Amino acid sequence: MKVRTAGRRKAAADEWVEKKGYKRILLSYLPLVLTMISAVIFVSFIIVTDQMTKEAEKANAVSTEYIADTLESTVEEIEVSVLRELAVNRSLNRFMNDATGDNMRVTQYELSRDLDKLAGAYPELRSIYVYRSADAVVLTQREITPLVCFPGQGVHCCSFLLEPCSQMAACPLIHG
User: Fold this and answer.
1) What Rg, from alpha-carbon coordinates, does the chain have?
2) What's the CA gap between 134 and 92, in Å, rounded?
3) Which of 15, 65, 145, 169 has its CA 20 to 30 A from that of 88?
4) Residue 170: its pLDDT value, please?
């Protein structure tokens, strides 16, 4: 009968495992399974975020390169146009070489109009002006002004290797 008791025990154990034990075994592994699924999702999120960051950096590099190339070609185009104007513009030649000549007002007007056309052709140019060092005047698209009255004249004095202009208080346009 010992055999039967052992068989009954085994049958009872099997029945218990089938009813309650199986579920308990499954439930005991549930935290581990949830932890593993969470870890996989977290690692996947990190990998996707890293890939997106790398792709964004690549897109930014391409965009920056395109903008730099466009800006460089625009500046080169403007430079060629300005150099062409310097070479062929008679008004500019008369303005620079004959500060006291006849019809200087007409020359200034023509050169001012030419500067306005050049600035109109290139909207990237915020301002364009000509500096004549012989008498320290600046011709803009709208007016002719002594350098001491010109906005930002301190920067221009330094760029033309002149001494800093200290006569700003004497400018009638500013202190009029």
Assistant:
1) 42
2) 14
3) 145
4) 44
Helix (H/G/I), strand (E/B), else coil: 132: strand
DSSP code for 41: H
Query: What is the distance between the alpha carbons of residues 100 and 45, in angstroms, rounded to a whole number?
Result: 76
Cα–Cα distance, 70 to 78 (Å, whole number): 12
CA–CA distance, 34 with 42 (Å, rounded to integer): 12
The model's pTM is: 0.55
Q: 144: which strand partners?
A: 139
Report helix, strand and coil shares of the chain as percent, to nearest 5: 70, 5, 25
- Cα-based distances in Å from 127 to 37, 65, 69, 110, 174: 63, 26, 23, 17, 20
Condensed to tens digits (0 to 9), the pLDDT of residues 99-147 reads: 676 778 888 888 888 888 888 888 888 888 888 888 888 888 888 888 7
The answer for 163, left when phi > 0, alpha when psi is -120 to 50, beta otherwise, is: beta
Euclidean distance between CA atoms 85 and 111, whole angstroms: 10
Q: Which of 49, 129, 59, 57 is nearest to 96 (CA)?
A: 129
Distance CA 23, CA 32 (A): 15
Task: Answer yes or no: are the C-beta atoms of 127 and 145 closer than 8 Å.
Answer: no
